[in-house]
Amino acid sequence: MKSTQRQSRRLMAVGAIAVLSLVLAACGSNDDSKAGDSKQQGSPAAVDEALQKGGTITYWSWTPSAQAQVAAFEKAYPNVKVNYVNAGTGNDHYTKLQNTIKAGTGAPDVAQIEYQALPQFALPGSLVDLRQYGFDQFQSAYTPSTWAAVHAADGLFGLPQDSGPMALFYNKEVFDKYGLTVPKTWDEYIAAAKKLHQADPKKYITSDTGDAGFATSMSWQAGGKPFSTNGKNVTINLQDEGTKKWTANWNQLVQGGLLSTIPSWSDAWFKALGDGTIATLPTGAWMPGVLESSVKAGAGKWRVAPMPTYGGDAVTAENGGSTQSVLKQSKNPALAAGFVRWLNNGDGVKTFLASGGFPATTADLKAPTFVDSKNAYFGGQQINQVLTAAASTVAPGWSYLPYELYANSIFGDTVGKAYLAKTDLDAGLKAWQEALVAYGNQQGFQVNG
Hints:
The chain has helices spanning 9-27, 44-53, 66-76, 90-103, 118-122, 144-149, 172-177, 186-199, 212-221, 241-255, 267-275, 287-294, 333-345, 348-354, 362-366, 368-371, 383-391, 404-409, 411-421, 425-442; strands at 55-60, 80-85, 110-114, 151-152, 155-156, 159-160, 167-171, 206-207, 227-230, 233-236, 259-260, 280-283, 302-306, 322-326, 446-448. By secondary structure, it is α/β, with parallel strands linked by helices. Helix 8 (186-199) runs parallel beside helix 10 (241-255).
């Protein structure tokens, strides 16, 4: 799920620094307890036995479906008690989780972790490698992009819960009023932005004040691969061909003053989505639930279309998504693994979908009951036909930094300045890269950039 945006930046950085010290120890160690090790005691049978025997585990999550899933799980396995804790979203959640890891006590048995944050917890050896329980057999059940996202080094540290293939959400009422055509390319998108803002200077094609997750997803969709990691060796190139392809287009919106400066996820932002001030959102497939619950005034107005392209074949990227991981501190890892298996490879998926979640499981992405369902909020459109098609066109080969949380925490101090001044994003990305290279080297990585 999408985390709360642009909050508690200082706490995120502190938490990321604490994780980094452990990441580096893992990268330079041969200790079998570190990431990628599958020699711990365990087996698929151990999971089944643990579920039947029962016990108590603690689960940290922030997702809307968590409580309903816990209730359904306890009904299916009455010998198991799950203590559900909402430790906060985003930075708050990760800071608290890292504090328990550093203290060596107090960690939950299972924790929700976003794909982008997973390496920072997996690489230090804080999570259980689920290959020992035979979970690698489930690969074919998930989309390639989400399956790749739950791996770090050679280890498997979760089963994908959801995915966020990007699509273009647009306000049909606004498009009809101003004679806009749904853009199939980014050139057409920019033309629509100009036409809309010229017709009504109070309206904008979208809002963007500088969000790291959005920027990296847009680079990804354009073919960018700015980050690569091999142990302690990290390469950063935020001027690669794909990233510059994105900025060449997005700069026209930034420098042309064609983007709303209303901060995302603010009350004003939700209001602007409802009254037509913001006409589109290029974002993840989890967005329908957000619009339905938080933008009541937009009911019947919004529609979904494929992401605009750069003139070639259909291609998109992921934006958001998370898994559940078993913590090394768990005193009953087999039972915790059984809970994870039920959540994301069992009946827990049905409960998740019932709460408006977008699946990572290929079977659900193909199920007619899901694909062909009509959504009243979107004017009866069969939006999942668009969103499931997007899931099959995610560009392969993307990877995050081993200190992605820290990287995101300083995005506003570098690239964010370009948005604020309406200047070249490439210059902002260069500043971000310089900061990330310097920081990584200070922390003991060998960073090229």
